[in-house]
Design goal:
Distance between the termini: 99 Å
Number of helices: 31
Helix content: over 70%
Radius of gyration: 35 Å
Largest sheet: 2 strands, antiparallel
Oligomer: single chain
CATH superfamily of one domain: Tetratricopeptide repeat domain
Strand content: under 5%
Strand order of the largest sheet: 1-4
Shape: extended
CATH class of one domain: Mainly Alpha
Structural class: mainly alpha
Amino acid sequence: MDVYRFKNCYRGPIQILGYTLLVVISVFAVGCQAMTPTAALPSGPAGEHKNVAPAYYYFTAAQMKLKQGDINEAIWHLKRAIQHDPDSIYLKLEMANLLLIKKDDQQSLALIHQVLAKDPNHTQALTMAGRIYEQQNEPDKALAAYEKVLGNQPSDQGIYLLLGRIYWNKNDLNNAERVFQRMTINLPDSYAAYYFYGKALSAQGKLAQAEKALSRSLELEPSLEEPRLELLKIYKSQNQHQKVTIAYQAILDNDPDNYEAALGLAAHLHYLNHPDQSLAILADMGLRVDNHPEIISTLFEIYLETKRYAEAMWALDGMLKTAPKNADLHYMAGIALNGMERDEDALGQLLQVAPKSRFYTNAVVHSAMILHDLGKIGRAIKVVQSAILHDPDNIDYYLYLGSFYEELERFEEALEALREGLKKDAKNGRLHFRTGVVYDKMGRKEKSIAAMKNVLRLTPNDAEALNYLGYTYADMGINLDEAEMLIQSALKIKPNDGYITDSLGWVYFKRGNYSQALEWLTKAVKLVPDDPVILEHLGDVYLRMDSREKALSFYQRSFNKKSTDRSALREKIRTLTHR
C-alpha cells in the first residue's frame, strides 16, 4: 500500500514545431520540491503494514540525499524502500525518474513496465514511457503511449503537443491535423490548439481552413507572432498584398523592434512600387542601428547567410542614407558586394570599417584576401601592416603578413613578420608551423625541423606538424622509423587525409618497400586525385617496379597539373619517351 504523496514538480518549456509553450508534465527532477510523506500511516488489521515503516524510513532518507545533491545515495535508499514496499507505484516511478537522470533508460523503462503491468492506464507511467521511447528513436511506441494517455485524459494540453510533434516530424500531416483538431474541440479556449491546427492545415494546402484556425488563435491571444507569420505565408502564396501589408504592420505594432518584420514589410512595399514608404522603414532602421546591434544580425541571417546579396545591398543602401558612418553597415555591404563579385566596390566598403568597430579584424582579413585573390599582394601587405599599427597584439595579422611575404618568396621578410608575432606569443603553434614552412622553402631543413619540433612540444597532437616532420625526414631519407611513427600518429587523427597517406607511402618508397608504397600511394591518389606531387610519387613507384607505361601516365598527369618546378618532371617524361 502506498503511503507517499508525490508532487508533480516538472514545469518547463517544450519546443514544438517552432513554438514554445509551458506544459506541466508529471516527470520528476532532482532539485524539485521534496516529496512529502502523509501525516500518519493508515490503520488496518494487525500486521498489514509491517513493511511500511522501514520503506518510509528509506524513502525519507532518499529525500535527504536528494536535497544534498547525492543522487547515487538517493537511488540506493529508494532501492531499499522498494524492497520493503514492492507494490508501491510511486516509489517505482520516482526510482525510474532518478534512473532517467542518470541516463539509465533501460532500467527506468523496466520499472515503468512493472507499473503498467499493474495499472495499464497509469498516466504518469505512460507519459514517462513515451518520453523514453522518443529518446530511443522509437516514435511509434511513443505514439502508442501518448495516444493511450490522451484517451484517458482528453484535456491534457501537453499530450496533444507531444503527439502532434511526433506526427509532424514523421511527416504524417493527416494525423497531426487530427490531433490538433481534436485539441481545438476539447480545449476550445487554447490559442495553441488553433495555431498548431492551422499550421497543419496550411502544410497540406488547406489554406482557407488554415486561415480560419490561425485567425481564431489570434482572437484568443492577439499578441502572438507565430500565427501572423503563418498567415503571412498564406497571403503571400495567394498574392493577397493588402493582407500581407496588414499582417506585417500588426507584428510591428505589437513589437516595434521586430526587425525581420520591418525588413519584410520594406521589401514588400518595394515590390508593390511604394519606394518612399519602403525607404522610410530602412531609413528608420539606419537611425536605430547604432543602439540596436540585432539589426545587423537580422540582416546577416536573412540576406548574407542565404547569399541574397543583391537584396542585402538594397536594404543596406537604404540604411546607409541615414547612417553613412556606421562601420557595421559598411562591413555588411563589403561582404554583400564581394558576394556579387564587385571586388573593388567591396574593398571601398571594407576599408571604411574603423579600428574601433567590432568587425575591424574581419574587415582587414577580408580586404587582404580580396586583394590577394586579385593578385595585388603588395596592397594586401599594406592593409595588414596598417592594421598592426592599430592592434599590434593581434597574432592573425602576423600570420597573414608572413604568408603574403612567403607567397612572394620574400622569405626573410616572412620570417621577420613571424618573429614579431612570436615576440607577442612565444607559444603560438601556428606561428612556429609557418616559420618551419618558410625555412623549408629556403632550403634550411634543420631550422625547419626545429620549428616543427617546437610545434609538437606545444601541441603534440597537431596532425599537420606530425605529417610535415615525418615527410621531411622521408624526403631527406633519414630517421625513417621515426618518420613512419610520426605519420602513423597523424593518420590516427586524420585517417582519410590524402596528403598524410601520401607521406606514409613515401616512407615505404624510401625504404625500398615498393609494394607497400604502391598500396598507400594508390589510396592517396583516390583521396586527392589531382595533386601533382602525389601523382609524381606514384609514377616514381611504378618506374621502380618497371611498369614504365604506368609511370609515364602518372608523370604526364602530374605535369598537366603542375604549374611550377616542372623541369625535373619534364626530364623524367623525356627519358621514358625517347628510349
